[in-house]
Amino acid sequence: MLWQALTTVRDLGRLHDIASILIRYGFGDMVRRMGLANALEKAGRALHWSDAQEFAHLPPPARVRRALEDMGPTFVKLGQVLATRVDLFEPEWITEFSKLQDSAPPLPYDALRQQLTEDLGAPPEDIFAAFDPVPVAAASIAQVHRARLKDGSEVVIKVRRPGIRPVIEADLRWLARLAELAEAQSPELRGFHPQEVVRQFSRSLRNELDFAVECRNAERIAENFAGYADPDEPLGDPGDLSAEAAAEPPPPAGPVIVIPRVYWQWSGERVCVQTFIDGISGRRLAALDQAGLDRKMLARRGARAVLKMIVEDGFFHADPHPGNVFYLPGNRIAFIDFGMVGRLSELRRDQLTRLLLGLVKHDSARVADVMLDWTGNAAVDEDGLTLEIQAFVEQYHGVALKQLKLGGMLSDLVAILRQHQLELPADLSLLIKAFISLEGMGRELDPDFEMASEAMPMLEQAMRARYAPAAVLKRGWHAASEVFSLLAGLPRDLSRLLRAARRGRLEVHIDVLHLKRVGNQLDSAANRLVVGIVVAALIVGSSIVMTVPGGPSLLGLPLFGLLGFLGAVAGSLWLLLSIWRSGKADRE
């Protein structure tokens, strides 16, 4: 299969590079078992097998992270997606994947100018009053330049690197093939569901390649925050009546949450023009004190904003790391880079609300119900899983609200699922990773930050809204509409059923789980039984022929008797080999 996939010289060279990097970092055994070595040798490509002593001292998570960095931008992006799969990987793996940073040397402006002119519809110097040819940031997919519009507005221009899509599509093809091989030939990798992970990653990366998708995401989040106000109170002691404590904080100079404006007349698949955010990056926390910003207020506002996106809107920034957050005068917060977003249905938001309330209020039954809903139709020991979840929640009984770390609690819950070899749906794994990142950022801003305290009012409000009379009436009307629709179509369905029965075309299909496998096992057993009977008959018949004098002979023995014994030996060997293979397949 892999040999047939070697269709172009470029793809063959890329596979050779990937295999060489894996060998260098001590994964040569995986290269052999996945069949990459044999395929490359057939294609005339030699691999240099080394002992990889240079990296032998590194733990496996660090070696995998280093290998992903060396394999290029597509694999760095893959590692960043793997960092969201807290349900599949242990914390030490998540920590290493989170270290992957997407950076690349910037391209010279001359290499971008022609493509940029095509996308803008005119040369940049004709559209902008000023354009900086030196990029302010560069990554593997795009680089960012500053410019100024003719009306004086400061903007940033995100430009996709020329020729990057064919390179990434080639890497995605190889990833899909490697995932298929890994799942088929490596039992230990099968538990990580490589094909499903690659499918999720491919969708995410193709969306990131289309900047129009990112622009639409930014506009949708901006609409959700239109008119948003965050009621911050003074941070002092309510009993302190001093002038400093009683003074109200200065009102923010603009919206509390800032989302860059998109200039659609110049934005598209390969270029994105947005408002320039002039603020302090989330990576420069020391600069906040110099600017006179309130860390506690910023932590609270950021938490409330992301919780609103998750609980109320169901559409959230899925990668809220410090590089994508800026702090502005007036203790305002700006979010950028909406290439990776998460979506939650109303059902998911309801489940999340119940789960978080259950954790905060130590309601183990509520938490267990939600977690069982999340496992879907997977085979699971429900009693054992419920008992573990209940024991986990009960250990926090009596713990003060301010001492609860929701991110850590969610991580521990996911670890319980991982122990039962269960995985979360992709939207939930993305959500939990974003939630953990959010709490970590809050504690970096304010060591006393209490995520549970910030989440409680919003969760209770969401629960009250769900059971408000108008909401209950709306759900009841929706359910009644579905029931009426079903009843209205029932006569038509019965008529079709009776018509098919009268014509003798009524068919009943019963799909019994694993029935095909059982049938195959029965066929195999019957074949072995027949071969065993034939072998026994050959032995008995050959023994009789051996006693009959006359006829041709070989080595002093009757020829036909000897041939019969040889056939019996061959049949016996086949029978033993078949039984051994069957036992090996059952063990796997």
Give structural notes.
It is built from 25 helices and 13 strands. By secondary structure, the protein is of the alpha+beta class. Strands 1, 2, 3, 4 and 6 form a five-stranded antiparallel sheet that branches. A four-stranded mixed sheet has the order 5-10-9-7, covered by helices on one side. Strands 8-11 form a two-stranded antiparallel ribbon. Helix 16 (295-313) runs antiparallel to helix 21. The chain is globular, with a radius of gyration of 32 Å.
Main sheet overview: 5 strands, antiparallel
Beta content: 5-15%
User: What portion of residues is helical?
Assistant: 55-70%
C-alpha termini separation: 22 Å
- Uncertain parts: 1-9, 233-248
| Nearest-integer average pLDDT | 79
Q: How is the quaternary structure best described? A: single chain
Computed CA radius of gyration, to the nearest angstrom: 32 Å
Structural class, by secondary structure, is: alpha+beta
Compute the number of helices: 25
Described by the principal axes of the CA atoms, the overall outline is globular
Number of strands: 13
List keywords for this structure.
588 residues, 8% strand, alpha+beta, 4-stranded mixed beta sheet, 13 strands, 25 helices
Per-chain topology:
Blueprint lengths: L1 H4 L3 H16 L3 H6 L2 H7 L17 H12 L1 H10 L8 H8 L10 H12 L3 H4 L2 E2 L5 E2 L3 E7 L5 E7 L3 H22 L1 H4 L3 H16 L1 H14 L18 H4 L10 E2 L12 E5 L4 E2 L4 H5 L4 H19 L1 E3 L7 E4 L3 E4 L5 E3 L2 H15 L3 H12 L6 H13 L11 H14 L6 H20 L5 H16 L2 H34 L12 H32 L6 E2 L2 E2 H29 L1
Parallel strand pairs: 5-10
Antiparallel strand pairs: 1-3, 2-3, 3-4, 4-6, 7-9, 8-11, 9-10, 12-13
